[in-house]
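hey so i finally got around to running the thing on that chain from the lab meeting. sorry it took forever, my laptop kept dying and i had to restart like 3 times. anyway pasting the input first so we r on the same page abt which one it is
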Amino acid sequence: MGRIGPVEIIIFLVVVLLIFGGRGKISGIMGDFAKGIKSFRKGMKEPDVDTSQTTSGALVNEPINVTPDKEKSKV
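ok and heres what got predicted. didnt touch it at all, straight out
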């Protein structure tokens, strides 16, 4: 125990290659993270829009009857 063998070195190199390899993976991830924070802040600044009513005044979340009529199912 405590010895570093060839398998451990290969695993270490693969992990390092995945993290730091490629064309700026870390900077790309951090850029996406920053864009997410900016869009979250923008969403927090915008006023809430009442989506419960349409322009006609009817409620959007009204229950819809999806059960078939018994007369039609007897056909």
